[in-house]
């Protein structure tokens, strides 16, 4: 909850600019939230990743867990400050991990976090996007956490992830827990997420010319995107969480 509170000043500080964007178009770019924005996302998600990512979420997919235990290749797309990647790399010493993020400040922090944790042998943080990865790679697991709804080209990114996923691999998507329709989201968590959407997720996508999908995309919206990108299998995982939805996507 502390991380959530940290996000309030950074979101409200852009309120006049969001208001202006409602009238004139555009939005507030991701980088304009500065270090406060990066720290808020880090504080909101880090505890969950450290406590649940491996021991509960990944364990719910036994073939994925087994593959990582014996040695697999993992890409964490849009890794931010890298706590999901770091947690996995710490737990699965025989697997190789790449964290990829387009935001220089986030990836610099992720690299520092890896050094502080002494986790560098099976982990590499890459600043940039797909063209910055070594060509010809395939991954057994691709994770993308709290990220797809932010993208400027969600279907384009999902198509690339589809190409990078091995034939029997899994794309594990984590997204905010909301229902498909506005009326089903009339509750405190829906209100919180719509607020965060207007003041961060939606506006930063619109600022970069994206569709501004926003935080409250919901499972049907996500299923449409992944099917349009070429995946055939879309599963909503039955994991306990008040705030988070989990999808396992496969060829
Ligand atoms: C809300 S943050 C989530 C960060 C992290 N995955 C987490 O769960 O805390 C979304 C991240 O996606 C990254 N991102 C957005 N578009 C991207 C792209 N085209 N390629 C790589 N990363 C991207 C942003 O820089 C940002 O760090």
Structure summarized in a few sentences:
By secondary structure, this protein is α/β, with parallel strands linked by helices. It has helices spanning 2-12, 15-24, 34-57, 62-70, 83-91, 104-116, 154-164, 188-207, 218-228, and strands spanning 73-77, 96-101, 123-127, 139-145, 165-176, 233-236, 244-250. It has one domain (2-128, 135-250): 3-Layer(aba) Sandwich (Rossmann fold), CATH 3.40.50.
Describe this structure in words.
With 251 residues, the chain is α/β, with parallel strands linked by helices. The protein has a single domain, classed as 3-Layer(aba) Sandwich (Rossmann fold), CATH 3.40.50.150. It contains nine helices and seven strands; from the N terminus they run H-H-H-H-E-H-E-H-E-E-H-E-H-H-E-E. Strands 3-2-1-4-5-7-6 form a seven-stranded mixed β-sheet, sandwiched between helices. The model has no long low-confidence stretch (mean pLDDT 96). The chain binds S-adenosylmethionine. S-adenosylmethionine (SAM) binds next to helix 3 and strand 2. The site of S-adenosylmethionine has 19 residues, from helix 3 and strand 2.
Q: Descriptors for this entry?
A:
251 residues, Rossmann fold, 7-stranded mixed β-sheet, 7 strands, globular, binds S-adenosylmethionine
Q: How many individual domains?
A: 1
Distinct small-molecule ligands in the complex = S-adenosylmethionine
* Overall body shape: globular
CATH first level: Alpha Beta
Question: What is the H-and-E element order?
Answer: HHHHEHEHEEHEHHEE
- How much of the sequence lies in strands comes to 15-25%
């Amino acid at each position: 909850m502390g991380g959530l509170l940290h996000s309030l000043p950074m979101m409200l500080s852009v309120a006049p600019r969001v208001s202006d964007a409602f009238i004139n178009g555009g939005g507030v770019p991701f980088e304009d939230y500065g270090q406060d924005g990066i720290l808020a996302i880090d504080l909101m998600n880090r505890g969950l990743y450290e406590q649940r990512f491996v021991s509960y979420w990944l364990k719910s997919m036994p073939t994925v867990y087994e593959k990582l235990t014996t040695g697999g290749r993992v890409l964490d797309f849009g890794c931010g400050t890298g706590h999901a990647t770091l947690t996995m790399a710490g737990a699965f010493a025989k697997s190789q991990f790449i964290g990829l993020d387009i935001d220089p400040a986030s990836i610099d922090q992720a690299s520092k976090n890896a050094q502080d944790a002494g986790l560098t042998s099976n982990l590499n943080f890459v600043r940039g996007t797909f063209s910055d990865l070594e060509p010809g790679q395939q991954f057994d697991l691709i994770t993308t956490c709290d990220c797809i709804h932010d993208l400027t080209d969600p279907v384009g990114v999902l198509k690339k992830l589809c190409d990078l996923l091995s034939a029997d691999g899994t794309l594990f998507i984590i997204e905010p827990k909301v229902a498909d329709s506005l009326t089903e989201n009339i509750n405190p968590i829906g209100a919180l997420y719509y607020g965060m959407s207007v003041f961060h997720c939606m506006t930063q996508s619109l600022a970069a010319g994206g569709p501004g999908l926003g935080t409250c995309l919901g499972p049907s919206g996500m299923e449409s995107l992944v099917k349009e990108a070429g995946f055939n299998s879309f599963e909503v995982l039955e994991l306990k969480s008040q705030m988070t939805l989990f999808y396992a996507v496969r060829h």
